[in-house]
Amino acid sequence: MPNLVTPLCRTLGLTAPILQAPVSDSPDLAIAVSEAGGLGIIPITWTRTDVLGRTLAAMQARTAAPFAANIVIPLMEEMQQANLDLALEAGVPVISTFYGDPAPLIGRIHDAGALSMHTVGSAEEARRVVDQGVDIVVAQGVEAGGHVWGRVATMVLVPSVVDAVPGVPVVAAGGIADGRGLCAALALGAQAAWIGTRLLLARESDAHPAYRERIAAARATDTVLSEAFDDGWPDAPHRCLLNDTLEAWQEAGEPPPGSRPDEGEVLGCDGSGAEIRRYSIEIPTVDTTGAVTSMALYAGQSAGLTSGEATAADIVNGMVSEAASVLARIAR
Ligand SMILES: Cc1cc2nc3c(=O)[nH]c(=O)nc-3n(C[C@H](O)[C@H](O)[C@H](O)COP(=O)(O)O)c2cc1C
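Above: the input record for the complex with flavin mononucleotide. Below: its predicted structure, written as tokens.
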């Protein structure tokens, strides 16, 4: 295996400069990425605290490799505060925060001995959060899948952020789905790539098969950045695959909440039997029933580079070896 180990990899104990984006609640995916030498991550925003406690214990029993936890700042209420405490008590070494101001959380993360990793959308924001104490900056380009914080493309954002926070490790997010993208991210000065859509298709992810099929078949032009799926997280732009819900909303002239086509219609249920309504932020997973392809199908423009299923290990190893071949080809 070619060596693309960066200083951030050494800090985190990784053998591959690849960080999983928090695209799936599946502990199997996080474990598989970490076991492959990258950094797996587990979202802790939507999991009940008792369930999270059991999940973290089971993950730590299954792997000695490090993994991170991700929390969405504007959705932090009592349960999410408890989940953060739990992750810190469990010794999760890296806490990733998203969408807003991480300042109130940084001291708490550091006091527990963990590193603070925050996602930014501009160079100015990177400078500000680093001044506040953030240890690792994720620079998320506008082509990213799921909720999108900034409006600058990855190709421009990453070098701007790298220049803005000298000496601080930067991770490139958005649009990276193969070894060419990984190589480009490293060339731009990032010390790792943050992979969402590509790993959503990993065999270990819990994405619904119909959702996987849509991503695998998608072109780069098939995603839409909108605020349409806002039930559960309002006023937060996100990138999804174009589906019948978005088409009907666009045809109706993109009306605001309260007057959208079929608003409130029950589309199906999640694994716990809870109803999922049209415009809900909830993602279809293997145990979701109903009209799954009408739900929020988060995906980045990188869907156009993503086809076929593979294990997380194959994806991580494949990206690293392709990046190394690209470097060798350029050197020739
Ligand atoms: C299905 C899905 C769910 C996501 N959920 C989160 C999340 O809970 N927290 C977060 O920080 N980012 C989330 N994101 C955004 C990713 O962290 C990341 O920025 C994005 O996937 C990178 O672009 P890519 O999909 O082209 O790799 C999500 C993305 C997707 C596709």
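Notes for the reader.
The first helix runs from residue 7 to 12.
The chain has two domains: 7-204+311-331, 209-303.
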